[in-house]
Design a protein that fits this description.
Elements lengths: L15 E6 L4 H15 L3 E8 L12 H19 L3 E7 L8 H14 L3 E5 L9 H14 L24 E5 L7 E4 L4 H9 L13 H11 L7 E7 L3
Parallel strand pairs: 1-2, 1-4, 2-3, 4-5
Antiparallel strand pairs: 5-7, 6-7
Helix pairs in contact: 1-5, 2-5, 3-4
The structure holds zinc ion (ZN).
The site of zinc ion (ZN) has 5 residues, from loops.
């Protein structure tokens, strides 16, 4: 099995990476360790959260706009820990994300503004992708890939300072159990990944104890390559 697997070298040509996720903390928990290693290599990483994460609490009396503000601040703190270039939030409500034309255009605009060469997003095709926002974010991110390269698609976006036609060349999916083929050992940066996750205090009030699920997942994926903690991806062929 290991003969066909790739590691961090699968991202050797990446220079500008855009990560399209659904909620504050998705990027950190699912690919924070790989991102840390790419940033150490000089890669510029742009984070997009489609929703505000404004139902992410078990407190019945919580006020949604207040929670959204908290989660945006936590996102910025985590971004500083990881060393992200820029974070964007598309302002949709948590639990109600739809991969519609508006979301597609919002994401295409960011492909054009960031001039990213590589996209990471949720695998919308994995049957176990049970969170509708994760499916929607992944679908919309893939749907925006092609139009972002076409001059007649939302041409007003191209008038923004710094914007140019989308130039994505590579697409990788995370949060997938559909035969991932890239296994990145993140053991050496796990303390920093954990610190970035814990910046989302509203989500992990018990500290590391609240992230046992993540450690178990990262350990499970570590077994095929005999690493302690591993993050996995699946590359899809695009032109
Ligand atoms: Zn999520």
């Amino acid at each position: 099995m290991t003969a066909e697997l790739k590691g961090l070298e699968a991202f050797a040509e990446v220079q500008r990476l855009i990560v399209v996720a659904a909620h504050p903390d998705d990027l950190e928990t699912m690919c924070g360790g790989t991102i840390l290693q790419l940033i150490q290599r000089g890669v510029k990483v742009f984070s997009v959260n489609c929703t505000l994460g404004d139902i992410g609490t078990q407190e019945a009396g919580a006020i949604r706009p207040v929670l959204a503000t908290t989660r945006l601040a936590e996102t910025e703190e985590a971004a500083r820990i990881l060393g992200l270039e820029q974070t964007y939030n598309l302002g949709h409500h948590d639990g109600e994300l739809i991969p519609d034309l508006e979301l597609r255009a919002q994401i295409a605009r960011l492909y054009r503004l960031t001039q990213a060469d590589t996209l990471w997003t949720f695998d919308p095709f994995w049957p176990g992708q049970i969170h509708p926002d994760h499916r929607a974010a992944g679908q919309a991110a893939l749907d925006a890939y092609m139009p972002s390269k076409m001059p007649l698609y939302r041409p007003e976006q191209l008038n923004e300072p710094g914007a140019s036609l989308g130039c994505l060349k590579r697409v990788f999916l995370f949060s997938t159990d559909r035969d991932p083929d890239i296994f990145v050992d993140v053991t050496g940066v796990y303390d920093t990944k954990m610190a970035a996750c814990l910046a989302h205090r509203s989500q992990f009030p018990q500290g590391e104890e609240s992230l046992e699920w993540m450690k178990e997942l990262d350990q499970r994926w570590g077994r095929p390559i005999e690493a302690i903690y591993t993050e996995v991806f699946k590359q899809i062929d695009v032109w």
